[in-house]
Design brief:
The chain is of the alpha/beta class. Helix content is 32%, strand content 17%. The structure holds S-adenosylmethionine. Pfam families: FtsJ.
Length: 328
């Protein structure tokens, strides 16, 4: 039941597996491209925060497929190999990672940098938004080193309270910045994508890898700009009206009347962060087994010490299904 119910909940999850994409996120990039023709004329692209690799798959088909096309993908996590994609396992906030990306381009600038990065969500909105913003700024910093003048930068953004400040920061480097929401991105999520075109850094700007988060005199440069520090940018929804609605549940029966058949994931994660929790669950060692009567969060004082991540996971998300953790 678990597998079927998850498929049913999310038509893009189902379609991704049927079409051979490693994750449903592939549709987000495809729908962004439909709207903005992101891949037109692109020969070199960087995919930041790429695992499990569906955006890299899209890029390798649209960019890497050309004879001189080149795609570099980076993630903290290991990613299964993909034809035509150079992979780096590293942290995009680290100087060493930025240097490695640059090395692969051998002096040739990239036409497109994309970043679908997401920190581990804590549920504390301010913290999550802050972390997401920092990741975006790290991606932007790397982009300032590899992107050609006039190039394009697309990054996941959380539309939180201070998002207008982020837009302003992006506007310092790009002639056009807008916020796009593909149909495959749930309306219930504050996720959207900043689409920044026309890379045009301020005169005299020197990219500085020693400050990966752009948390320095860049602010001074920024404050010297004329006009308000917070701007409103156009909001564009992408994916035509006939596209599936990601907030809806669709029936499993296929339109042609044929019976639905479960499709396994295209590429299961290599070494997911929840692996330890899966192992403990299989051995009956998760917190709910330890406290079968009551494992509510207000009994945290009664928990075994030290408190491990898997224990917290069980307490905070008791309904996580086996299939969602790929425990089978
Ligand atoms: C939503 S997933 C990306 C999905 C991917 N675009 C795809 O289509 O398969 C977010 C990724 O961001 C990565 N990430 C988060 N923080 C990172 C960091 N500091 N450096 C590199 N990758 C990071 C995570 O490891 C995770 O794989």
């Amino acid at each position: 039941m678990g597998r079927t119910s998850k498929d049913k909940r999310d038509v893009y999850y189902r379609l991704a597996k049927e079409n051979g994409w490693r994750a449903r996120s592939a549709f987000k990039l495809l729908q962004l491209d439909e709207e903005f023709q992101l891949f037109q004329g692109v020969k070199r692209a960087v995919d930041l925060c790429a695992a499990p690799g569906s955006w890299s798959q899209v890029l390798s088909q649209k960019v890497g497929g050309q004879s001189s096309g080149q795609v570099v993908a980076v993630d903290l996590q290991a990613m299964a190999p993909l034809a035509g994609v150079i992979q780096i396992q590293g942290d995009i906030t680290q100087l060493s990672t930025a240097k490695e990306i640059i090395k692969h381009f051998e002096g040739c600038p990239a036409d497109l940098v994309v970043c679908d990065g997401a920190p581990d969500v804590t549920g504390l909105h301010d913290v999550d938004e802050y972390m997401q913003a920092q990741l975006l700024l790290a991606a932007l910093n790397i982009a300032t080193h590899v992107l050609k003048l006039g190039g394009c930068f697309v990054a996941k953004i959380f539309r939180g309270r201070d998002v207008s400040l982020l837009y302003s920061q992006l506007r310092v480097f790009f002639s056009s910045v807008l916020c796009a929401k593909p149909k495959s991105s749930r309306n219930s999520s504050i996720e959207a994508f900043a689409v920044c075109r026309g890379y045009d850094p301020p005169e005299g700007f020197i990219p500085d890898l020693t400050r990966p988060l752009l948390d320095h005199s860049y602010d001074l440069d920024f404050n010297q700009l004329e006009g308000p520090t917070r701007i409103i940018v156009p909001f564009v929804t992408c994916g035509d009206l006939s596209a599936y609605d990601s907030d809806r549940s669709y029936p499993l029966d296929l339109e042609d009347g044929s019976e639905y058949r479960y499709t396994p994931p295209t590429q299961p994660p290599i070494s997911p962060p929840y692996q330890e929790a899966c192992k403990l669950k299989k051995n009956g060692q998760l917190a709910k087994e330890v406290f079968p009567q009551d494992c509510s969060i207000n009994r945290i004082d009664k928990l075994p010490q030290p408190l491990t991540v898997p224990h917290c996971l069980t307490l905070l998300a008791p309904k996580v299904e086996d299939n969602e953790m790929n425990c089978s």
